[in-house]
From TrEMBL:
Pathway: Protein modification; protein ubiquitination. Residues 114-182 form the Ubiquitin-activating enzyme E1 FCCH domain. The keyword Ligase applies. It comes from the Eukaryota. This is UBA1 enzyme. Pfam families: E1_4HB, E1_FCCH. One of its GO terms (molecular function) is ubiquitin-like modifier activating enzyme activity. The gene is Uba1_1.
Amino acid sequence: QFFLREEDVGQNRAEATLPRLAELNAYVAVTSTRQPLSQDMLAPFQVVVLTNSSLEEQLWVGDFCHSHGIKLVVADTRGLFGQLFCDFGDDMVVTDTNGEQPLSAMVSMVTKGCPGEVTCLDEARHGFETGDFVTFTEVEGMEELNSCGPVEIRVLGPYTFSIGDTSGFGDYVRGGIVTQVKMPKHIRFKRLREALVEPELMITDFGKAERPPIMHWGWQALHRFIRQHGHPPRPRHQGDAAEVVALTREVAPGAELDEELLRELAFQATGDLAPVNAFIGGLAAQEVMK
């Protein structure tokens, strides 16, 4: 990491880092402790981020945080490999899923029916998705649309969507603007213990869409190896790498595995690269800000 210097070798990392970290923002109180993690220590926090922790520690901390309404982020790196897990509780309210400005489109036609169908001007696609909520303004003829609240839509095509029952409305004449409304969504996060069995994996590279589940199992195998041997697989050690592959087969019996990828994970298991730490740490920090 970036805050340590050569003269800090032999010192506790947290204590050596603390004064330099505290300089980043004088309004934030930063403390360190050498005490082992406990429920009493975690209880006052709103968010807990675990790094360099064993799977056993992650599980009990995850259970405690979930049951006490504390958000949990687990972040770890091994060489060029990294993982990130988030548990934001049973009822996380999300008001903006993508950070983009709400979409809008010009209306060219609204039919009377159940459901009614809305057609937008064909110069540009409306960009809406099924399940989105929209409002209408400046509609002539079918003025009821202007005063109704956000309505859920079902996309029928790039220029059309349906909006529910319009059979009792007036006849559409002309005009109108339809605007997307960002509605609060309630999301239930799985605790780590559940997610290990039934993970919801984020695919960031569709050219390597098969990798996330393999890595999910590989990290668990890595934890098993460390628990059994008391240390991570040795760098470039073929025997240790073969054992990690075998442990992965125990974690996911019958699954199709990329053995070369798993061996690479084992080869790099003692690696600690500041740029990778910064990248995974940046993702973790974004999740904390949410």
